[in-house]
Write a structure and sequence with these properties.
Helix content is about 40%, strand content about 25%. Helix 11 runs antiparallel to helix 12.
Length: about 300
């Protein structure tokens, strides 16, 4: 029976990952995080609802000895909590213990670059390492590859997302706020078109809109580069255009809170970044309007013989 360590297992994403694993696998789960009481409570709830083999563990991802002890007991470590600042320790211990790794975190350059830098070592050690394994990042490239199977020549494949979420009802950790602010600070508006990657200017954004169907309608979207899309042109030689586009939150969050969060992050003052993160998520919840649904869609065009 495999054992899976879920760091952040009592959080928004980690709890759902644990539920999914209990429903569809026979894996033993270790729910870990800095708050041991929350881990215990989550493990008890999951065991009562789904059965299975569960354990709670207090774990500081910045403590390499604690990581070694935890990794020694698992076959796979899944990181659903924000751990980008502890990534150096995590990578060192994972390599030493040959522990497979998966994260569902936001895609920030520091994380991707750190993992890519150790790519050859991961291969030499026989490890499986998967990053950006969530919703988006995570699914856009998979949707494009799936579409390619239905065309003899896939020419255009654009993925767009609408996220109507009751943000005020979601508990967000300080680390997640900081990670989100860092992603905003490294925002990249590149798309692949005309068989090359190019940055879309702010002026062009105003004309970019996608139809999300009944109840949502046509919404303006901004281009957002996803590292996972980088390999698609080589994998799908016929591809001429692809990109990821995301609708905004609301007028206040998009035009005021987002700008403040980006400025705070660039000033590199931690307390200010945290304050801006709090303000951002507060505004996302305070000004949220229905419909409260989430859509991820692909618009594709190509040639079928």
């Amino acid at each position: 029976m495999p054992t899976i360590l879920i760091v952040g297992g009592y959080g928004n994403t980690g709890y759902l990952v644990a539920e999914l694993l209990l429903k569809h696998t026979d894996a033993a789960l270790i729910l870990a995080g800095r708050n041991g009481e929350k881990a215990e409570a989550a493990a008890s709830r999951l065991e009562a609802q789904h059965g299975g083999e569960l354990e709670a563990l207090r774990l500081d991802a910045g403590d390499e000895q604690q990581l070694k002890d935890a990794f020694a007991r698992c076959d796979l470590a899944v990181f659903t909590a924000s751990t980008h600042k502890q990534l150096g320790s995590i990578v060192r211990v994972a390599i030493e213990t040959r522990t497979d790794y998966l994260d569902t975190q936001l895609s920030i350059p520091h994380k991707v670059e750190t993992l890519e830098r150790h790519g050859n070592v991961f291969v030499q050690r026989g490890m499986t390492v998967i990053t950006d394994g969530g919703f988006h990042p995570g699914l856009p490239a998979a949707l494009v590859r799936h579409a390619a199977r239905h065309f003899d020549q896939l020419k255009v494949a654009n993925v767009s997302s609408y996220m109507g979420i009751r943000w005020g009802e979601i508990e967000t950790s300080i680390n997640t706020m900081e990670e989100f602010a860092e992603e905003l600070n490294s925002f990249d508006a590149r798309v692949y078109r005309g068989r090359k990657w190019e940055t879309i200017t702010l002026r062009e954004w105003s004309s970019m809109a996608f139809d999300f169907g009944e109840g949502i309608g046509r919404r303006s979207c901004m281009p957002m580069y996803m590292h996972e899309l980088e390999a698609l042109p080589a994998q799908i030689p016929s591809l001429e255009e692809t990109g990821f586009f995301i609708s905004g939150f609301n007028w206040f969050t998009d035009n005021i809170a987002t700008v403040l969060a980006m400025l705070a992050t660039r000033m590199n003052i931690r307390w200010l970044t945290r304050l801006a993160g709090h303000f951002f998520f507060w505004s996302a919840g305070a000004f949220a309007k229905p419909p409260f649904v989430t859509v991820l869609q692909l618009e594709a065009d190509g040639i079928e013989q």
